């Protein structure tokens, strides 16, 4: 793609977070894209789910959520922190929402990052046609992929989507991606039994190339956003898992032969 066309490619985002030490190696800039195919009950970024620009009440004030940005504008922001990336091995991560719902924008952003020598990562459910994923692989260093459940009917019940395509794409990504890390949002009432976590770990181990699996404890930090959007919070009063519970689940995953981190 012509460099001018690359940098003028537009997409819709809702936030840029600098100096993150999660979601990929080193110090990172996280770009949050609008739009997602899933509707996970526990989603902590409900404002990311719809592609449309929205309004949300936060701290008693109405805010506009979502705006257009060009690759060039975002690269100008990201490149200001180049010294921190170099010292820490960091770079840029695309999050959301689901960045694969804006494939042209995502491809252009990752391409521009690599043109500038930046490490790249995405957070994804991979719930899309694999041809979309293939487009970005030449510009992707780390894929942080959610595997939420191995049972498709339960996956459908809690996320509004089945998981067959997700699991199939994980198998292909394990062969095609430079580095694939599987992350498991650990959600009470959904996937927090030792057997369920073991099954996900066993599947992850079967992929052959995945070195790390991350267990991400459920939290209620997105609750106020649902209220601000005028939406019901479907997780109700379900509490976060205890440290002891997470350690039990970590041991269950390790028994499948995986290296497991809590958080990440």
Concise account of the structure shown:
This protein is an alpha/beta fold and 264 residues long. 36% of the residues lie in helices and 23% in strands. The model has no long low-confidence stretch (mean pLDDT 97).
List keywords for this structure.
264 residues, alpha/beta, 10 helices
Describe this structure in words.
The longest helix is centred in the middle third of the chain and has 13 residues, at 103-115. This protein starts with a helix and ends with a strand. It has 264 residues and is an alpha/beta fold. A nine-stranded mixed beta sheet has the order 5-1-2-6-7-8-9-10-11. Strands 3-4 form a two-stranded antiparallel sheet. It is built from ten helices and eleven strands.
Radius of gyration: 18 Å
**Biggest sheet details:** 9 strands, mixed
* Proportion of beta-strand residues: 15-25%
User: Whole-Å distance between the termini?
Assistant: 34 Å
- The average pLDDT score comes to 97
Low-confidence stretches: none
Task: Tell me the series of helices and strands, N- to C-terminal.
Answer: HEEEEEHHEHEHEHHEHEHHE
Measured as a percent range, the helix fraction is 25-40%
Gross morphology: globular
Counted by DSSP, the helix tally is: 10
Structural class: alpha/beta
Query: Which strand order does the major sheet show?
Result: 5-1-2-6-7-8-9-10-11
DSSP E strands, number: 11
């Amino acid at each position: 793609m012509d460099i001018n066309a690359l940098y003028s490619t537009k997409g819709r985002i809702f936030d840029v977070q600098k100096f993150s030490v999660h979601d990929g190696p080193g110090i990172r800039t996280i770009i949050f894209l609008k739009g997602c195919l899933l509707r996970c009950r526990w989603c902590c970024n409900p404002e990311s789910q719809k592609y449309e620009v929205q309004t949300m009440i936060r701290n008693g004030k109405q805010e506009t959520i979502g705006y257009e940005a060009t690759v060039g504008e975002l690269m100008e922001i990201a490149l200001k922190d180049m010294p921190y990336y170099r010292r820490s091995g960091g770079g840029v991560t695309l999050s959301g929402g689901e960045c694969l719902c804006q494939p042209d924008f995502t491809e252009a952003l990752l391409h521009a990052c690599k043109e500038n020598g930046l490490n790249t990562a995405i957070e994804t459910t991979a719930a899309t046609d694999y041809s979309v994923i293939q487009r970005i692989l030449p510009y992707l260093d780390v894929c942080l992929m959610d595997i939420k459940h191995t049972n498709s009917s339960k996956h459908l019940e809690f996320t509004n989507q089945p998981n067959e395509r997700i699991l199939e794409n994980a198998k292909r990504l394990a062969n095609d991606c430079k580095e694939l890390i599987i992350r498991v949002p650990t959600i009470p009432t959904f996937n927090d039994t030792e057997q369920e976590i073991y099954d996900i770990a066993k599947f992850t181990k079967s992929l052959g190339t995945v070195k790390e699996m991350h267990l991400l404890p459920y939290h209620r930090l997105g609750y106020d956003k649902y209220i601000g959007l005028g939406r019901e919070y479907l997780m109700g009063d379900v509490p976060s898992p205890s440290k002891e519970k997470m350690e039990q689940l970590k041991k269950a995953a390790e028994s499948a032969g995986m290296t497991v981190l809590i958080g990440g």
